[in-house]
Every structure is written in C-alpha cells, then in structure tokens.
Amino acid sequence: MTENANHDQSELWNGRSGSAWVDNRAALDQMFVPLARFLIDRARDVAQQTPSGRLLDVGCGTGGATLALSTALGHPWRLTGADISAPMIETARTRAAHARAPVEFLCADVQTHVFAQAPFDLIVSRLGVMFFDDPIAAFANLRASARPGAALHTLVWRGPSENPFMTVAERTAAPLLCGLPPRQPGAPGQFGFADRERVAAILSSAGWGDVRLEPVQFDCTFAQADLRDYASRLGPVGLALAGLDPAKRESVVDAVVDAYAPFVAQGEVRFTSACWHLSARAPSGDV
To answer: Which terminus of the chain has fewer Cβ atoms in its 10 Å neighbourhood, N or C?
Structure first.
C-alpha cells in the first residue's frame, strides 16, 4: 500500500471519466436503480439485527445509491460514501446538502485510506470495487475498517459475454478507430471481477470469511434521449472519441448509437445487467 496506489485509476476518474459520470449522473442513477434496491434490501436485513450502526459505500460515485441507502435506513445509521474521484465526490456532497441528508462523503482511495471513525457495521458497493490495482490489499484495508462480524455486500459485473449491452460501443467502434485498447481479463476495470474463483480467493486472502458469489441479474432502463451522450462519453470508446476531429467523431458516434437499436423500445433503452452478488463477513475474532 503506497501513495502511488491506483495511480492510473486516479487519473482516469479525476479526469474525463469522472466528468462524464458527473454530467450523466441522472441517466446512470436511473439505469442502476434496480441494483441500488438490491443493496437496500441487504442493508435492511442487516439493520434488523443491528438497528443502528455505520455503513461505508465503496466507490460511491455521485452518491445516488448512498443517499438512497440513507433514506431507507434512517437516522439511526450513519453513512459514509468514499470514492477516488474528486468531481464525483463534490457532486455527491452537493446532492447531500440539497437533500439535507446526514451522509459524509470522502474523496479517498479505500485501498490505502485509514478511516478515522472505523469500525463499520456494514460495507456495500454498487459496481465500485473492481478498480483496485492491488485488490487483496484493498479488501484487507476494508476488513481492518470493519467491526468483528460486520457484513460486506457488493455488486460486481460478471463477464462481457453475459453483458452484451456493455460492449456494444467498443464492438462497433473498434473497426472505425485506431488503437482502441482491448479489455484485459482480470485487470482493474468494469469486468475485473468477472472470474468467480479468482474473486473468492482475493476475499479469502484479504481475511474475509463466509465468502460467497451468487449470480444475479437486473432489468435496467434509461431514457432513449440520453443514449447519445451515454454512448459517446462513457467507457473506453468515450475516451478514444475525445481525441478525434469533430466530423470523424460524429460519424463514429452515429454508428455506435445505431448499433444499440436492439436495446431500444418505446423511448427507453432496456438491457439486462448480469452481476455477481459478492458477500462476506469479517471474522468475529478481529479487533
């Protein structure tokens, strides 16, 4: 664990990718409502046994899921959202202030950050834990921030073959762009936790117990009106498009948007998110 941990991810999420998520937060929050609801249900299960406590949302982004969890759990629970992206955390803090929600948002790399008020009773994440350059160190740090017996509930993507919507843009753009980097299995990124056995080994090596990965899927939607911005600004294609001249860029974006046609109906974009529900528990003997 060094000060240089996750340097590439820090640059990415404090640069164009972070800005793109901020600008598209409404569409992304709508898209992932079913995932947030799933985590809310898990949190409520924990709250039945622990009526008050502290929750950490890892990779909280612009705070949509964190604020929904706060509303669901109420004031007996104190919530903290953490993300490496300063632009997203700034947006999350603004949203919390407007909602008068008692949520703390930290701009921090949870792989190395020492949480001053640990331990947490529950740690959750909606698609935010696949980006560590040393995932064992990251989950060991999270375990150190958890009270004995604390629960971990996260959602991570399964593989790209099970999530065809998520690869439409790059499959379409690859023949039209020079040097679009291929995804590397197991590398930090969207599908970094697709391998079930590898992820279970990471959590066990980091000291977590009762590690489980269960397949879940969610029917997701967002407005067709938001599709062009989504297709042209997010993911590896969004980064590649930023360097093109305007005419070439619009030509590629047109082709990519057209390729989403099988997922569009009645003014909505509809697709299935295939995820792992990754759960674990901090050993009861930890201090």
So the answer is: C
